[in-house]
Amino acid sequence: MVMRAEEIERLLRESFPQARITITDLAGDGNHYAAEVIDPGFRGLNRVEQQRAVYAALKGRMDGPAGALHALALTTKAPG
Question: Whole-model pTM?
Answer without folding.
Answer: 0.89
